[in-house]
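Lecture 7 notes: from sequence to structure.

We start with a single chain of 313 residues. Read the sequence below before looking at the structure.
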Amino acid sequence: MSKQLNRKSDGTLWLAEISVTPREIIFIPTGTLDMKVFSGLQSGDYVGIFSTYAGLDVTHTGLIVKSKDKILLRHASSRSSAKRVVDEDLLGYLEGKPGSGCVSRQAMKNIKDRPYLLLVLAVLFWSGNFILGRAFHSEIPPVALAFWRWVGAAMLVTLPALPHLRRDRHALVQRWPVILLIATLGIAAFNTLVYSGLQYTEAINAFLLQSLMPVLIVLLSFMIFHERVTKLQGVGILVSLCGAVTIIARGDAGILLSLSINRGDLLVFTAMACYAGYTVLLRKRPQVHPWSFIATTFWIGALLLIPFYLWER
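Now the structure, written as tokens:
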């Protein structure tokens, strides 16, 4: 069964802060359930009770707890007699329910469940962006490099984004000022300024300036949204900053003392400020599918670069 999660039958959203996500819901009708169906499940596997409401996949969730002679559902009960986490016979609990779906812990282990891998890949891609920008600074002009980068990226994401763009077009149009600002800061300005800065400065300088990103994000969050930083967050940012500087300088203070600031560094710092603004403003993005959002911002960013690209030539 296909559903548009978070969208009610009247078109409104269950939760305004969450985007609509198309999903193919697969469930087992209650009438076909017996102990044989659940025999392959293990303690800790996830169970969701199928919902007949538009926009919802499940009405309740719980975990499998297997004992010698029965299978229990451990869940947070909302009944007035309980209002606590309880263990109930799974088949007995499912009586009168439309159906259920089960997911094993092994099946849930995909790339989204590997945060450390994703963090490493993010750092790898970011560092590669600076290194390549510096490596080709004499062969490819900065605006051209940024322009064709975003045109290529936009072309790659457009096809999978098309069905979502058709559905989200009204929400995107309604929030066009925010989308334009986000695309300007994070797409058009950021990479153009980075590549321009790398015409005059070394990649190591750019890496050092990139380590200031958490500080800039926190500063802009406070300035724009009055979001205060806890002591623990402050310590974390300081440790992160010191660690990044130590690694980049290979623990040699002489490397830091020998660095000189030039206009390239100022351009890269401006790029970091733009990206920090982009990151902070993402909370104001329209509640649309991620494919719709990235395709729209990629194309807007590329279009904004056209005048500068033609001028550079």
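The chain has two domains: 2-103, 111-312. Keep this in mind for problem set 3.
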